[in-house]
């Protein structure tokens, strides 16, 4: 859902006054789009709907009562998404298709036209539908959960209180660390210890705050002030009050980007061209051939204003294997 926020922003730009319904699996879409003025209804299908057939089918039939002007299937090769597009009613149905022979869609865009980044693909769909001829469209909208001023103020208060517990002088910068991820994307605790030790050498007055994962346990040995919340908006508000968030490739990395805080995503398995942070001075660091200290030095070099390290090469690109996007 975080990766869908650029699509809603693009629809708002293209179709002033449009009313948008969002159909999602699971409950989090309600939080992601809570402050989007253009979003009229958010339909949250139960996860694993086949285990909850009555509630699942009831909601499907409720959505079917509306005849839409346009349905967008933003996913590549998702059978479930395409089935929903087939079931719901609309004058036009838009999506990608490899064979360009879909009987479900009225407007088919070749998969070859899909941008690499998952958040930019649905934006390309909307632009193609508005004007199939190439135009001078602006850059891609950033991911954004549109935190309110009240949420941001509360986030700043939380961070200020967390740092007040540290027995050090005023911090030069505040860095949030999310050290959890699934499977091989997760870096081990010793790796993070070396990484943070080197980062602190670059800026001894850099304050570290750990963002604790949903299981509620510290991934960094409880060495740093930490914040936990079951609410993605509260978590986003706290991260938005920081100067930088560093995270392995995971949903919290996307949440940080969508909270409009500079974010460095660490990638060792998945493709940064598809999932990497962009916008708000955010970027990706490919760590395949880097030690933890080397990775920390690369991060410090990418943010010289925070760490006092040498600036990266012109054009926002640091020597391989680092790739900065949307600096």
TrEMBL record:
Highest rank taxon of the organism: Bacteria
Gene3D superfamilies attached to this UniProt entry: Glycogen Phosphorylase B
Keyword Glycosyltransferase belongs to the record: yes
Keywords: Glycosyltransferase, Transferase
Keyword Cytoplasm applies: no
Name of this protein: ADP-heptose:LPS heptosyltransferase
């Amino acid at each position: 859902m975080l990766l869908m926020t650029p699509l809603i922003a693009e629809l708002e730009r293209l179709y002033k006054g449009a009313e948008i319904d969002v159909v999602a699996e699971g409950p989090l879409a309600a939080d992601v789009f809570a402050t989007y003025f253009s979003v009229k209804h958010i339909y949250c299908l139960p996860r694993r709907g086949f285990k909850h057939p009555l509630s699942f089918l009831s909601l499907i039939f409720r959505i079917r009562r509306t005849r839409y002007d346009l349905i967008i299937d933003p996913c590549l090769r998702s059978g479930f998404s395409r089935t929903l597009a087939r079931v719901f009613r609309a004058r036009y149905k838009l999506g990608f298709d490899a064979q360009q022979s879909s009987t479900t869609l009225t407007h088919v865009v070749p998969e070859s036209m899909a941008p690499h980044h998952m958040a930019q693909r649905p934006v390309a769909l909307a632009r193609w539908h508005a004007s199939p001829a190439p135009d001078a469209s602006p850059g891609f909208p950033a991911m954004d959960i549109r935190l309110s001023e009240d949420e941001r103020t509360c986030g700043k208060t939380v961070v200020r209180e967390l740092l007040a517990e540290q027995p050090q002088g005023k911090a030069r910068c505040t860095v949030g660390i999310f050290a959890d991820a699934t499977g091989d994307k997760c870096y081990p605790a010793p790796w993070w210890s070396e990484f943070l030790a080197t980062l602190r050498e670059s800026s001894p007055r850099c304050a570290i705050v750990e963002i604790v994962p949903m299981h509620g346990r510290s991934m960094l040995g409880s060495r740093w002030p930490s914040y936990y919340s079951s609410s993605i908006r509260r978590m986003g508000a706290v991260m938005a009050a920081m100067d930088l968030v560093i995270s392995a490739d995971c949903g919290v990395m996307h949440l940080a980007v969508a909270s409009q805080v500079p974010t460095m995503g660490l990638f060792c398995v998945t493709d940064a061209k598809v999932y990497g942070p962009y916008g708000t001075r955010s970027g990706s660091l490919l760590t395949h051939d880097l030690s933890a200290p080397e990775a920390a030095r690369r991060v410090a070099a990418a943010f010289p204003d925070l760490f006092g390290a040498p600036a990266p090469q012109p054009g926002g690109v640091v020597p391989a294997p680092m790739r900065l996007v949307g600096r």
